[in-house]
Each structure stands twice: as C-alpha cells, then as structure tokens.
Specification:
The protein is mainly alpha-helical and 60 residues long. The chain has four helices and no strands.
Amino acid sequence: MRSIAFDPKKMERLVRSDAFLRFVVDDLVSRSHPREKALEIVFNGYVLEDSVMEDKYKEA
C-alpha cells in the first residue's frame, strides 16, 4: 500500500469540504494548537488508514 504524505494546503481543502473535520480542527485551534499542527493531527488521526478519507484527500 502506497503511503500518502501530509500537505497542509490539501488538508485545508479537505477540511473546508467536511463539517466534522472542520469542527475537529477548529476545536484544536481553540485549544491553542497552531493551525498547521491541528491539520496534521487530524490528518494522522482521521485520514490515514481510512480508505474513504484517503480517497477524498487525494481528490482535494
């Protein structure tokens, strides 16, 4: 299986199109995480190893 790399610009596009991911990122930012770090946390926790989310990420 080919791994995908974190890209903050791509992740921003995915977050804009997904209400749940947007909520999680906004919550992390409100808890004093830098936005890019919040995006990376969400990428690692919700996108990787989820084939549907990986496909959405690749299309973003």
